[in-house]
Records
---
Amino acid sequence: MLKESFEVKDLGEAKFMLGIQITRTTNGYSLDQSSYIEKIKKKYNYFDCKPVCTPYDASVKLFKNTGDNVRQTEYASIIGSLRYAADYT
């Protein structure tokens, strides 16, 4: 057992793990990622963004960006955070 080799402290039931909220119910366990998504939105200042049903509307004609450049590292970080939420949790 681990406690024979290491000092172990019982912290009780887990409430959060890797950004996932864990709730015990009468039927089992419930996992919720909303706190992780809210943290991502707040970190990148997208907290007040409007949700949409489909992120891409095929009927909209796209034009070349003439405004500010997108910071590629920030964009990659946002996409990576969302992919983590979608793919690994």
Note: The first strand starts at residue 16 and ends at 17.
---
Amino acid sequence: MASGASPCLGVPPHRLWAVRPGIYEDEKGRTWVTVVVRLSPSQRARGSTHEPSITVHMWQMPVHPQKPMSPSQLTLSQLPLMWQLYPGRRYRTMDSRLWEVVDHGQIASTEQLILTQLPPGE
């Protein structure tokens, strides 16, 4: 596809829980691996400060089973510990931030999910 968008797969996972840094599990027990985290300057100013925009690319793929880490061990990650699907193709995180589903599709045989963090108040 010339636009770079992948074929749509319908509804993305309802929940994603961090089990290891960069590795999430959905409600069906499938693992999602963070393959790209992109930081870019925000297009909007909040007062005199600019918040960077964060975009996360995840692929659904099996990983070697490992013991899950406790939430306290995962706090060093800049990514949320949990995403929950919210109306309007958005995820809400435990800190009430919203992430927009930019793409949920398939590349070859790999399911892909791309999320972008929305500025506060969106």
Note: Strands lie at 15-20, 23-26, 31-40, 45-46, 49-50, 53-60, 82-86, 90-93, 98-107, 110-117.
---
Amino acid sequence: MCKHILNAQVSIRSPCCKKWFDCPDCHAEQETHPLLQKFEMIFACKKCKKCFRKDASEFEEADEYCPHCDNHFVLDAITPKAALRVEGEDARVDNRMLKDDRVKNDKPRTIFDPDLDADKLG
């Protein structure tokens, strides 16, 4: 899994060391040599797990899809962003952990409480 691009749809085979990477930043972190750039690229689709070649010099709009499963792999990259938030479930979905201050929590009533209905006894 790539920590730089969250929606990576393919892995790319590096032409210099013949290893698979999700992005150039992953190659730079794991290898000591610079990334060799060529026009012929080898991809592995993460959806159907099949490999295919594409020529980057003749890249067209139809080449943005996997030839085996039609997975659209040329997308705008979603990168992780730093954020501070409270861990837990969404309160709009599951609000059992929230206390409602509008309702007073009285003692639970039972049928054995004598003072609740003492005036109704005959």
Note: The radius of gyration is 30 Å.
